[in-house]
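Supplementary notes for students who missed Thursday's class. We covered one full example, reproduced here. Read the sequence, then the structure, then the short commentary at the end.
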Amino acid sequence: MTKYPVIIPKGLTHLRSWLTGLITGLSLSFHATAGKPEALVLMAECPAHLSECVTMSLNLGSVDWEDYIEREIMLTPSYTLVSFPVRGTLANDNKTKRYHVAKAIFTQGLGCSDLDHVAVVGYSTEGDPILLTKKGEFTVKDIRLSIGCEQCLQLIDDNLNLIAEYTTPAWDLSLVDLEPKNLTWNQEGALFIQHHGNCLRWHKNNHFQQVDNTYCKPSPDLKPMHPSQMDEPPTLKLIVPQSPLQGLLQAGACT
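Structure (token representation):
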């Protein structure tokens, strides 16, 4: 699939609300037949009242589109409703089950993100992403899906020793209204992200935690890893002043 930048027009609040209502109704209808997996509606955006949440890209991991997507319905010229199965655990249920997800995806210019965006509040103790749904928090336990850009940020010391690896919100951070300068870390390698005016500690095995904004300063200086940028995807070197660690960030526009 050819990658194109995804440019989402502003002022889509009412459209997104309408789509959410439509998806909820269609999801329930998908579940009307006995024996079908439970219906689940993923939230594409973080609620305004919830600061400890980040919008991240949702991609197919180990399966092809044709083998995984069960149904496609065009809602508008820009949005398509897709349905697909996901294994995971709801917060109020300790059992891992197979759920049936219906989700509207922005298909006009779709490329960098297979299934658009989801709202993420952190990771489980096992490192599984925790998504927001209409039924509450949902821990994904399905290798067929990939949330964010896995291992796309590596922290190294002066001797090039690997200190830590992190999943970033998206391969192209601009898709989720972020920039590389929104990422910073401390001397111990703890990662922080500046998101919608909030500073979040980016836990790998826990919920995201809001901390004082001073933890997100100063913003890192960006330098290209290679002047020719021949790598695929491109690699940026992030240098945070007064920190002994450097960051190698896989971050590039869709091409």
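Commentary. The chain has two helices and 18 strands. Residues 1-14, 30-34 have pLDDT under 50 and may be disordered. If anything here is unclear, bring it to office hours.
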